[in-house]
Every structure is written in structure tokens, then in C-alpha cells.
Amino acid sequence: MESLAFPNRRRFAFTIMDDTDVATVANVGPIYRLLADLGMRTTKTVWPVDCPEGSKNYSSSSTLEDPEYLNFVLDLERAGFEIAYHGATMESSPRERTARAIDKFLSVFQRRPMIYANHGHNRENLYWGADRIDIALLKFLYRWLSGQPSNQYQGHWPGSPWWWGDIASVHISYIRNLTFDEIDLRRVNPTMPYRDPRRSLVPWWFSASDAEDVTAFNSLLRVENQDRLERQGGVCIVATHLAKGFVANGTVMPETERLLQRLSDRPGWFVPVGTLLDWLVEQGVARPLPPSEWRRMQWRWFADVVGRQIRLRLARLARR
Could you report the per-residue pLDDT of 91-137, keeping only the tens digit for each? Predict the structure, then answer.
């Protein structure tokens, strides 16, 4: 694997893709102010429209229908942050609502979304659940572990009420797929972003480093991992939720602030996800994914999924 010559003699690349789950101005504003002060520019997803039927898990979340939140997001974009798409809203959206949400995004930002991340168990998710992978045994095991039916995700099914693959192919350039317990994504997916002819509605796919909440984020960014990312000249795109524990009483958690400050002092290239992926395409790194790399990625991803589930269940037992 050849080393990368990052712009401005930077030694590694780091960015964040923040899924908008449970986000409000109050619970993510301080962390974005910190990122801006540290010179880091990252990517924030949004839900363009409200969810009038209600949502059991995400009812506290803000969407672009909230004027205060809309202004906050527009201020972020003006400050150099990238705004991306996390689906129409917090629950499953049929084609009509998805089309309306894309129109809303285009109207607000005067550009297409470009980057998308599937959300939760939304029926319109594209190539999601077991459809993310190809190894038959892993598909079977994943469906068994998740308890999801084979027809749960239908965004890529023409004729389905949830179908919007044709809309996505026009407006979306990059979609996040597999996530790993690894800070340097080049160790598991050097051919990134990548094309997948079996999932042809999507121009490019990319991987991410998994960090569900502030605890996982702090663990991922521990100093020895930062050392390794810099030493290896690596690439890190953290998939996280900045609304999940990063801010308490209007203040960023001290350990998170310390780790981000330490990272920002290093010679990293801190740009939004789209800027990084576009640059990787320009460098010729991106191409169709070699079969051997794809097989390794699937096995590593499944092992990481199982490991996270075990840790989650142990943590729940410890709290009892």
C-alpha cells in the first residue's frame, strides 16, 4: 500500500461524520464551536422534514423545519462545515416524503446532498442490513443476530413504496457502508472510496471508524491511537453522534476536549468528508474494490459488530 502525500505536507487525514440522531442546537452547539476553534471542519447530517407520526426513539431531535436549528445549520455551512443527508426524517419515509425532503435540501442549500448515511431501521435505507454484504454465511448470521426480515430495507427496490434509488443516483455521490473498530481506515479499506457493481445505484461507497457515542469516541481517539494514525499516515472518518453525551450543561466533556485539542496540535489534514473523498478520487486511490479486500472487510466488519454487541450487553449487565 503506497503512502499518501496529503495537501500542505500534512501527515494524516481526520474528519467526523455526525449522524443527526437526537441532535438539537443545545446538545451539539458547544462541540461544533470547539471543532471550529480547533481548526477542524467536519460533516454534519440533517433531516430536512419533520416526522408528524411521531418517533419513539428520536422525538427530541430537531429537523430543518425548526427555524432555530435551520439557522444553526446554515451558520455551520458558512463556517466551512459540510451538511449531508441522513434520510428524509427520523422514521421510515415513503417515496413521496423522500422526494419532498430532497427538494427541501436543494432549496435550503442550493446544492445536492452529495453524502448520505442510512439511518437506523428506516425502510427506505439503501442496500442496508444484510444487503450491505455478499458472503452468504455472514448474511445469514447477521439476519439471525439482528432479527430483521429479509425485506426490511427497500430503498433500492424499484416499485416498492420505499423506492428512491433513482433519486439517490442523481443527487448522492458517496454513501457510508461498513464501519470498523479501527482508527486508520487504510488498514482495512485502502481502496476507498470504492465502486461496487452489485450496488450500482451508488457511485461511490466509503468506510468509517465506528464511535456510537462519546465513550466510544474517546476510546477511539486515545493518545496511542492518535500516535498510530499519524505514524502510519492514515485516514480516519469517524461515524458518530455528537448529540450522544459529548455535551453536558452546555460544556463539552473535558476528556473529549482534551483529546481533540491534542489531535488538532498534530500535523493533520482536518477537512469535511466530501473534501477528503473527492481528493482520494483525484489521487487515483478509488477504484472498483478488489475481491480479496472486500472479503476481508466483510469478515472484519462482522467480527467488530459481534464484539460491539458483546461489550454492550456486558455494560448493561454491569449497570444492573
Answer: 999 999 999 999 999 999 999 999 999 999 999 999 999 999 999 99
Write out the three cell numbers for 165: 434509488
Distances 296 to 24, 206, 234, 291 between C-alpha atoms, Å: 38, 15, 19, 9
Q: How far apart are CA 228 and CA 168, in angstroms?
A: 36
Ramachandran class of 237: left when φ > 0, alpha when ψ lies in -120 to 50, beta otherwise: beta
CA dihedral over 215, 145, 45, 101, signed as positive or negative: negative
Q: Which of 232, 188, 290 is CA-nearest to residue 13? A: 232
Per-residue cell: 86: 441522513
Of the candidates 270, 252, 318, 259, the one whose C-alpha atom is nearest the C-alpha of residue 11 is: 270
pTM: 0.96
Whether residue 2 is predicted with pLDDT greater than 90 in this model: the reply is no
Instruction: Tell me if residue 91 falls in helix, strand or coil.
Output: coil
Question: Cα separation of 294 and 290, whole Å?
Answer: 6
CA atoms of 300 and 320, how far apart (whole Å): 31
Secondary element (H or E) of residue 217: helix 214-220
10 Å Cβ neighbour count for 101?
25
SS3 240: strand
Q: What angle do CA 265, 83, 190 make, to 5 degrees?
A: 60
Nearest to 264 by CA among 275, 256, 274: 256
